[in-house]
Amino acid sequence: MPKLAEPAETHDPLSIFSERESQVRSYCRSWPVAFDTAVGSRMTDIDGKSYLDFFAGAGALNYGHNNPALKAPLLDYLARDGVVHGLDMHTAAKAEFLRTFTDVVLAPRGLDYKVQFPGPTGTNAVESALKLARKVTGKEAMINFTNAFHGMTLGSLSVTGNSMKRGGAGIPLVHATPMPYDNYFDGTVPDFLWFERVLEDAGSSLNEPAAVIVETVQGEGGINPARAEWLRGLADLCNRHKILLIVDDVQMGCGRTGPFFSFEIAGIQPDIVCISKSISGYGLPMALTLIKPELDVWGPGEHNGTFRGNNPAFVTATAALREYWSDDRLERSTLAKGETVDATLRGLVETLPALELAAKGRGLARGLSFGDHTLADKTAAAAFERGLLLETAGPESEVAKIMPALTITDGELDEGLEIFADAVRSVAR
Ligand code: PMP
Predict the structure, then answer these.
(1) pLDDT of residue 429
(2) In the chain, which residues fall in CATH 3.90.1150.10?
(3) How does strand 141-145 pair with strand 209-214?
(4) Alpha helix (H) ranges present in 138-209?
């Protein structure tokens, strides 16, 4: 038997990660500390240093870390030995969630969707949406948009824009045709000019699409918001050409842009909606595929998975819906806080013209793009040194992304924005 290596003589608490964890790790490279506890909008590392969080679990923590209104029912549920793992068995916790989701989210918005639990993560919701659209229509082709992000499994990657992520597939990614997202040509080309033309031209070589998949605000793609009229135009085009419309609300849903569903501002009703990230509210894995009832043609077990019944996530999801979506207070405060962030970003755009900055976003999904693409990462690094966590987005990481918890206090928001502005000014020097 080969002798096991002696444990390295080191007191560096981070060395275990570089020694044992795969090279694939990424966020931790920007934040080279070990975090230990987190409450609301603050995370604390093992040395007791506190960081303000403008990252919010990449949109999975819209209600902050360890929110007490969610933690109490979760602890009660665990203490009374509530079912934790349940595949797709009927459970009391799932029934409560489905009832609450119907009463608090769907009914008040006049929406009627069947709920599929496709697996624990966002990409599971996207995969099931693509599969179902193909099954319903008998067509295989998909339309996606430039700079889209839909997840890391093969189907989701095939409709994702980023060439580095696509490269990781190792096989050809096929059956998807990209179309220009809103404002791709800086407003110089009429909306859907190319899309309509290739759909209507029998000589265009476009395969008839089963569905279009779209984000209302592209998160990973650089905080690019589509206008409400563009979204309405897309829904109308899909309707006229009998193409299903899938809205991927994994990152922008659950109130990130203000309303519960990000597409509400356009007054559209997508055929299929993908939800994940903040639906459990507590950072616990959970995803939903919402399906118009007439499209629910799945056979039993045709799409399944071991972790579709994360019952603690159902408990916290139910608590989050009751706490935050029984009235419009959260939506209004998100829109107001979004305006505060926007005002700061616009101030920076005005006072630092040499940086060629642009303020982007909607609600509390905000971003600042830099003319010199390297400066966004430098800003994130400068912010980290000052105790603020934020990530970058966009095809060349050219956008500093501001995504605090929706529940952040006004004081914390102001504090974080001051640090952010200071970080931007520091890279300008
Ligand atoms: N869709 C969108 C719009 C996303 O932002 C993400 C994650 N960033 C995904 C899908 C994939 O979700 P997950 O990482 O949970 O698989």
Answers:
(1) 87
(2) 23-53+328-402+410-428
(3) parallel
(4) 154-158, 163-167, 193-200
Mean pLDDT by 10 residues, the chain (429 residues): 54 94 96 98 98 98 98 98 97 98 98 98 98 98 98 98 96 98 96 97 97 98 98 98 99 98 98 98 98 98 97 98 98 98 98 98 98 98 98 98 98 98 96
41 lines ligand 1 (CB under 6 A): no
37 residue type, one letter: T
The answer to whether the predicted template modeling score (pTM) of the entire model surpasses 0.90 is: yes
* 121, 213, 276: residue to mutate for ligand 1 pocket, most atoms within 8 A of CB: 276
CA dihedral 87, 89, 93, 98 (to 10 degrees): 100
Would you tell me which CATH number, out of the four given (3.40.50.1970, 2.60.120.280, 2.140.10.30, 3.40.640.10), belongs to the domain 71-324? 3.40.640.10
Q: Which one of 3.40.50.10310, 3.30.450.40, 3.90.1150.10, 3.30.565.10 gives the CATH number of domain 23-53+328-402+410-428?
A: 3.90.1150.10
pLDDT at 6: 54
CA–CA distances in Å: residue 365 to residues 109, 361, 414: 22, 6, 16
Judge if the beta carbon of residue 144 lies within 6 A of ligand 1: no
pLDDT given at position 169: 97
Query: Ligand 1 pocket check: which of 144, 149, 153, 399 to mutate, most ligand atoms within 8 Å of Cβ?
Result: 149
Q: What are phi and psi of 242, to 5 degrees?
A: 55, 50
What are the φ and ψ backbone dihedral angles of 246, each rounded to 5 degrees? Answer: -105, 120
Locate the DSSP E strands across 151-269.
Answer: 176-179, 209-214, 217-218, 224-225, 244-248
**The pLDDT value given to residue 116:** 98
Of all protein residues, the one whose alpha carbon is nearest to atom 10 of ligand 1 is: 150
Check: CB of residue 244 under 8 Å from CB of residue 238: yes
pLDDT, residue 3, reads 54
283 lines ligand 1 (CB under 6 A): no
What order do you get walking across the sheet with 388-389 strand by strand? 35-39, 42-45, 50-53, 388-389
Taking 3-state DSSP, the helix, strand and coil percentages for the chain, each rounded to the nearest 5, stand at 40, 15, 45
